[in-house]
Write a structure and sequence with these properties.
single chain, about 400 residues, alpha+beta, TATA-Binding Protein, five-stranded antiparallel sheet, DNA/RNA_pol_sf
């Protein structure tokens, strides 16, 4: 209960000696909240409103693509602040501007400078000559220790390629929260581990009613992580500021609903910055339709990233190649005459044509063997899985400085 609350219609008086007297009144008012406190529903909103107001006063601009991103741009310098609740990352091109921003924040709030970015919300940051390496090694090792699998034999794939998980296999778990907590922790691990994104996507379908088979499949992911707990992604320092997107789909891959799975990965130069594995909202009648819907999902993400990169000072990036391995989907995107194939496709998918004409995107063909997005739609053989991860910018350990 909030301080000062005794009961409906009550208030507290304090005498000079410190004695507390409770008086009952007919009014139902209890207390007036003068500042937000931890634990109250409005606390995060009030804190962010205060923080954003202070940053705007100092000259920062709030990004419309990501409201937790604030930028301050001068003629030659750029300062960026990224906010997560009460944790902030400050970056920029001028150290003096960064120090000035930190001094301003310290004058407005009780702040603690943690120094150079090394560890943030479970993500380890390692700077090398080749770029910035992001991993969750400690988080992974703690997860393996928690479930007693740190001494098991490591596996080469996160999911058995011969097993098809369904909702009605196995015995129901008496305590489903064990499975739900494990999958929730694995979801957070996909921030730096795109190689398990598809497997975690499949496991997430059974959160409401998990079985023993599902739990066994989830623990298999831990045994896969044991092989390379320090694996992460490299944001290359010499990478070109150009977007490249890969999209793919697994037609009717869901055993329960026969819906297809969309998968995409977007790179800046050679560095992966966005990826997703998601079940489509409708049943596709053909593989071409499934691929076309996956392309539409990818284009939406590309447009958002282009706006976000513009806020970060990267402009005039040119068109973005959308790499697809389905010739029929590429033909639909280029030619609006395919009436019989496309008349049942929702109109919101056809904005791909508009963006192609505008020059925002450029649908291109890529062979299936080089389709990076396959990692997000299906279980691959070990050799192909390793090959595509290397093209994706995934590294087992950070490179030497």
């Amino acid at each position: 209960m909030p301080p000062g609350y005794v009961g409906p219609g009550s208030r507290i008086k304090v005498r000079k000696e410190g004695e507390i007297i409770t008086e009952t009144q007919k009014s139902k008012k209890v207390c007036k909240l003068l500042k937000s406190l931890y634990g109250l529903k409005q606390a995060p909103r009030q804190w962010f409103a205060k923080l954003s107001s202070a940053l705007k006063t100092y000259g920062f601009t709030q990004s419309r693509s990501d409201y937790s991103l604030f930028t301050k741009e001068t003629e030659s310098d750029l300062t960026v602040i990224l906010v997560y609740v009460d944790d902030l990352i400050v970056a920029g091109t001028n150290l003096n501007e960064i120090n000035a921003a930190k001094a301003f924040l310290s004058s407005q709030f009780h702040m603690k400078d943690m120094g150079e970015l090394r560890y943030f919300l479970g993500i380890e940051v390692d700077r090398t000559d080749d770029g910035i390496f992001l991993s969750q090694k400690k988080y992974t090792l703690d997860l393996l220790e928690e479930y007693g699998l740190s001494q098991c034999k490591a596996l080469k794939l996160p999911m058995d390629s011969h097993q098809k998980l369904a909702a009605d296999i196995g015995e129901s778990l008496p305590h489903p929260e064990v499975y739900q907590q494990l999958v929730g922790k694995l979801i957070y691990l996909t921030i730096t581990r795109p190689d398990i994104a598809y497997t975690v996507h499949v496991l997430s379908k059974f959160m409401h009613a998990p079985t023993s088979i599902h739990l066994q499949a989830a623990k298999r992911v831990l045994r896969y992580l044991l092989g390379a707990p320090g694996q992460g992604i490299l944001l290359a320092s010499k990478s070109s500021a150009h977007l490249t997107a890969f999209c793919d789909s697994d037609w009717a891959g869901c055993q329960n609903t026969r819906r297809s799975t969309s998968g995409f990965c977007i790179l800046v130069g050679e560095s992966p910055i966005s990826w997703k594995s998601k079940r489509q909202s409708v049943v596709s009648r053909s593989s071409a339709e499934a691929e076309y819907r996956a392309m539409a999902l990818t284009v939406c993400e590309v447009m958002w990233l282009q706006q976000l990169l513009q806020d970060l000072g990267i402009k005039n990036m040119g068109n973005t190649p959308i790499m697809c391995d389905n010739q029929a989907a590429l033909a639909i995107a280029a030619n609006p005459v395919h009436h019989e194939r496309t008349k049942h496709v929702d109109i919101d998918c056809h904005f791909i044509r508009e963006k192609t004409v505008e020059g925002t995107i450029n649908p291109c063909y890529v062979t299936s063997s080089e389709q990076v997005a396959d990692v997000f739609t299906k279980v691959l053989p070990t050799t192909q899985h390793t090959h595509l991860l290397s093209k994706l910018g995934v590294r087992s350990t950070s490179l030497s400085a």
